[in-house]
């Protein structure tokens, strides 16, 4: 008896492999159905099967919308049925995303990080007032904290003010305002070693047992 073996190399391409070969065949069969009503019933049944195959996504918003979009994608946008949602088009998925902007090169003060520069640029766009002054003071304190994490030593506020003035292109000068930043002890937390009390209790009990034996 001869059997016709079917190899993956000779099969059609799986558009969404997560659903498997059998579901892809169901979609292809649904596309080939001539009667519109029967085709609609078949499409609704396929949506139910797809939902059962991914129960972990039922709590995701627009879960059913996602299933219908995937059904049209698996049919290569050839399926003609009524969907409760807007039918996606091939052009939508063929459209290439816009390229991401390359991250801005870090300044010479790398220990502050790129976020500090973003915060400084944001502060410069704010109108003069108490909120802007408070933000600048927060930025300066954060710069001092970053400096201490890198240097592990004390730092003079004048150094932070100088760096802040350079990073803001001279627009922020806290030296003229006689500002005082937070103390080093408040910015850097000292970690205390964890003492294992269980080992200490075991040692005490062991010493007591030795003392009793000697008696």
Question: Can you describe what's shown?
Answer:
This protein is mainly α and 215 residues long. 53% of the residues lie in helices and 0% in strands. The protein contains 9 helices and no strands. Helix 1 (20-32) runs antiparallel to helix 2 (36-53), helix 2 (36-53) crosses helix 3 and helix 5 (114-125) packs antiparallel against helix 6. It is elongated and about 90 Å long. The mean pLDDT is 81.
Provide a compact summary of the structure.
This protein is 53% helix and 0% strand. It has 215 residues and is an all-alpha fold.
Report the uncertain regions: none
Task: Give the overall shape.
Answer: elongated
Biggest β-sheet, characterized? none
Q: How would you classify the helix and strand content by structural class?
A: mainly alpha
Q: Percent of residues in helical segments? A: 40-55%
- How many individual domains? 2
End-to-end Cα distance: 92 Å
Give the integer mean of the pLDDT values. 81
Q: Give the beta-strand count.
A: 0
Order of H and E elements: HHHHHHHHH
Supply Rg: 34 Å
Count up the helices: 9
Strand content: under 5%
